[in-house]
Amino acid sequence: MDERISVIRLRGVLLITMPANPDDSTVTVLQEHALKVMEASSDRGVILDISAVETLDSFFARTVVETAAMVSLMGGETVIVGMRPSVAITASQLGFTLGNVLTALDLDRALDLLADPSRERHRG
Amino acid sequence: MTSVAQGEVPIQDESHIVTVRTTVRDAASRMGFGITDVTRIVTAASELARNVFRYAGVGVMRWRALDDGGANGIELVFVDHGPGIADIELALREGFSSARGMGMGLPGSRRLMDDFDIQSTVGQGTTVTIRKWLRR
To answer: What's the half-sphere exposure (Cβ side, CA atoms, 13 Å) at A99?
Structure first.
């Protein structure tokens, strides 16, 4: 486990915070760890905080989308939180989308999304 | 064009993709690019550095500041002596994905930059040159 990734259990949700400039193996570890914890717990889902992330390239984005799909197969949901405007602009120009991954502006709204499945969803 | 600042980063293992990102972020910020352009440049650099590492294993990224009298900009050149690309048109096509799913790198970084040039010879290697100009 890369010590720069912070993982916190919060109200039945796994909160993963990514470092600003993760290398590929850190991104891969994020995926493995999220799935391991999902398997071992009854967590409702994963909140991935990328507010520190300065560069979201296609490898990172693909891993996030894959992880969300796997969490979903395990019965949970993934919410991406805190994408910087510059990162969002670049990601959209680069040509990728986050598919069906839920997104939220901040942690508060992300927790609301996972707490109340009937709430209106904002899909990224 | 005269060059006022330059440098290079060897790409030999995965961690050097991160070194490329930090070096390019630092250089582009010091040249006065705004946060969104810095993010575009760094993201394009990250895609191309990963291509070098994944496909060629070893290569180098050279950067330099450009000053052609009227305009300032940054130029990044990614050089490898890997397998090369047989069909550049195909590699640049939107949505084309190679066997390892890395296909977004070339068309994506072309969209993020102002200038994009690729030279590749099968069996000899690939050189990708990208530029971004400062808007005034």
So the answer is: 13
Q: How far apart are CA A122 and CA A81, in angstroms?
A: 12
Domain range annotation of chain B? 2-133
Residue ranges of chain A with pLDDT lower than 50? 1, 120, 123-124
B105 CA: distance to closest CA in chain A (Å)? 7
SS3 content of chain A, % helix, strand, coil (to 5): 40, 20, 40
Q: What ipTM, to 2 d.p.? A: 0.85
Phi, psi of B73 (to 5 degrees): -165, -175
Which positions in chain A touch B22 (Cβ < 8 Å)?
A: 21
Q: Does A66 touch chain B (CB under 8 A)?
A: no
CATH classification number, A6-115, choose in 3.10.50.40, 3.40.50.700, 3.30.300.30, 3.30.750.24:
3.30.750.24
User: Which residues of chain A lie closer than 8 angstroms to B24, CB-CB?
Assistant: none
Answer for the pair B129, B77: CB distance below 8 angstroms, yes or no. yes
Name the helix (H) or strand (E) containing A90. helix A85-94
Q: Quick one: CATH architecture of B2-133?
A: 2-Layer Sandwich (3.30)
pTM of the model: 0.89
Q: How far is B88 from chain A (nearest CA, A)?
A: 18
